[in-house]
Amino acid sequence: MIAVNPMDSASVLAAFGALGVLAVIFxxxxxxxxxxxxxxxxxxxxxxxLCAGGADQPPRLALWQVLVCAAVGAVAGGQAGYLIGxxxxxxLLARTSSGRLRAAATRAExxxxxxxxxxxxxxxxxxxxxxxxxxxxxxxxxxxxxxFTLWQTVGGLLWTQTLVxxxxxxxxxxxxxxxxxxxxxxxxxxxxxxxxxxxxxRTRRERRGSPH
Length: 212
Description:
Elements: H1 9-16, H2 18-30, H3 41-50, H4 63-86, H5 89-95, H6 99-124, H7 130-140, H8 145-173, H9 181-209
Helix pairs in contact: 1-2, 1-3, 2-4, 2-7, 3-8, 3-9, 4-7, 4-8, 6-7, 6-8
């Protein structure tokens, strides 16, 4: 039996291929506590790289399958997260012992209040940790179902298809790029954390500027 580490994108892709993408993206997009610790960006980008075959080897994954599975996982997961939020999401967040999870939920509420439903649901897809709690928080706050479905679908498609196609483009352009997946994943992690850093710096500046 093959041991699969759900935190390791290479392990997931080797064991399950495109179906692994669907499962992980679904969980990260909506299962709150479970999805909070799963890879997203670091799975989609390498999956796209593996869809590009080199001159001396065929693609390891089918691009259309990865694109479809990523889209289905993101949209279905977002809807599942919304339903979780509508039916007890606040109580679940209140009971959690994870300070990072509570902090992410607070950031999700602020994002929705600051930008409105549409913009927040699209932006939130591109922010690690935040995207795992944004949909349950939207459900708990009573965001209208129609508006939520529209914008979380737009955000989910933009996020998944952009990252997979970016990986595919790089894989098709650079020979043997799949030999450097680990450094590429590290780079994706750094880039994906930039919005979190920017948000933390902005919050710090606002606190310094607010009267005591």
